[in-house]
Specification:
Blueprint lengths: L2 H10 L1 H20 L1 H12 L8 H12 L8 H25 L8 H31 L18 H12 L8 H6 L2 H17 L8 H31 L14 H15 L8 H29 L9
Helix pairs in contact: 1-5, 2-5, 2-12, 3-4, 3-12, 5-6, 6-7, 6-9, 9-10, 10-12
Length: about 325
C-alpha cells in the first residue's frame, strides 16, 4: 500500500472514529458526574476576592447564595465544548498513533508526548471559541466578591457568540489561546504517562482491570495538572475577558500579558496564589479523567467486539 493510502487509512478508519466517539462520551459522562467541582474551581480562579479556599465550603456558599442548580450553571455549553474538544483530541491522537505504529518501539515515550502536543495544538485552534463562550456562560449570574467583575446578559451559546463578536471583535473568541497552546503539555504529559503505565500494567498479555485503569488515569492527570496549574488559572482569567493588562489583546494574546497576570497574581496573593483553586481542580480533573478513561476503554472494547474486530488495543 502506498504512503498516501496508509495515511488515508490512519485518518479515516472506523477504529479511529470509535476512539474519538468513545473519548467524547467518556469525557461527557465523567464531567457530568463531577461538574460541581469544576464550578468551584472556576469561581476560585476568577473571583480573587473570594476568601473561601476549601472546596466543600465554597460549594456550600454557592448553594446558599445562588441555589442548588447553580452548581450546574453552564453545564450544556461546557459539555458541548468538552464533547467536541475530546472528539478532536482523541481522533487526532489515535490517527497519529496509527500512522506511526510501525516506528521504533524504544522511542514510545517521546512519540506519545509529541503526538499529544500536536493533538493538543489542533484541538486548541479549533475549539478555543467554544471554551471562551462557555466560560462566560458558566460565570453568568454568579455573585462575585470582586466588584470590578461585571455581569453579562447572554441568552445562550449562539447569542453569546453574537454579542462577543459584535461588541469585542472576532479575535476575542481566541482569548487565552497562548496559555492554551502552552497547556497542550497538560494532556500530552497525561497521555504519555497513561500510555506508559498502561503498557507496563498490560505487559505479558495481562488483562487490565477497570480499577487499574481508574488509578492509572488518576495518577497521570494529577501529575499533569499540578505541573501546569498556574497557566490554567491565567487561561481562565483571559477567557472570562474582564481582566486587561495595558489593554493588550489579540487572537494569540501576548507573552507579556500572560507574564504580567502571573506576576500580578503573585503580588496580590504570594506564590500560593498561582495555585488558588488547585484542590478543587485536582478533585475535579483527577476524578473526571480517571472515570473518563474507564468509560473510554469500556466503550472501545465493547464496540470493537460488536464490530467483530476483536482488536486488542496496541499498547
Amino acid at each position: 500500500m502506498s504512503g498516501d493510502g496508509a495515511s488515508t487509512v490512519g485518518l479515516l478508519s472506523y477504529e479511529t472514529l470509535v476512539h474519538a466517539m468513545a473519548g467524547a462520551m467518556g469525557s461527557v459522562t465523567a464531567m457530568t458526574a463531577f461538574f460541581p467541582l469544576d464550578t468551584a474551581k472556576s469561581r476560585l480562579q476568577v473571583d480573587e476576592s473570594r476568601k473561601s479556599k476549601s472546596t466543600p465550603v465554597i460549594l456550600a456558599e454557592i448553594v446558599q447564595e445562588e441555589g442548588l442548580l447553580s452548581l450546574y450553571r453552564g453545564w450544556f455549553p461546557v459539555i458541548s465544548s468538552l464533547c467536541c474538544s475530546n472528539f478532536v483530541y482523541f481522533y487526532t491522537f489515535n490517527s497519529l498513533k496509527r500512522l506511526t505504529a510501525s516506528g521504533p518501539k524504544e522511542s514510545r515515550l517521546g512519540k506519545d508526548l509529541l503526538m499529544g502536543i500536536v493533538s493538543g495544538a489542533v484541538n486548541v485552534i479549533l475549539t478555543t471559541p467554544m471554551w471562551v463562550v462557555n466560560t462566560r456562560l458558566k460565570l453568568q449570574g454568579v455573585k462575585f466578591r470582586n466588584e470590578d467583575l461585571h455581569q453579562t446578559q447572554y441568552k445562550g451559546i449562539f447569542d453569546a457568540f453574537r454579542q462577543i463578536i459584535a461588541s469585542e471583535g472576532v479575535a476575542t473568541l481566541w482569548n487565552g489561546t497562548l496559555p492554551s497552546l502552552i497547556l497542550v503539555l497538560n494532556p500530552a504529559v497525561q497521555f504519555m504517562i497513561y500510555e506508559a503505565m498502561k503498557r507496563r500494567a498490560g505487559s505479558g498479555g495481562k488483562k487490565i482491570s477497570s480499577a487499574e485503569i481508574f488509578l492509572i488515569g488518576a495518577i497521570a492527570k494529577a501529575i499533569a495538572t499540578t505541573a501546569t496549574y498556574p497557566l490554567q488559572t491565567v487561561q481562565a482569567i483571559l477567557r472570562f475577558g474582564q481582566y486587561k493588562v495595558d489593554g493588550k489583546g489579540g487572537v494569540m494574546g501576548s507573552i507579556y500579558n500572560v507574564f504580567s497576570l502571573l506576576m500580578d497574581r503573585i503580588k496580590k496573593h504570594g506564590a500560593a496564589g498561582l495555585y488558588k483553586g488547585l484542590e478543587a481542580k485536582l478533585l475535579q480533573t483527577v476524578l473526571t479523567a480517571a472515570l473518563m478513561f474507564v468509560v473510554y476503554e469500556k466503550i472501545t472494547a465493547a464496540t470493537f467486539k460488536v464490530m467483530g474486530l476483536n482488536q486488542k488495543v496496541k499498547l
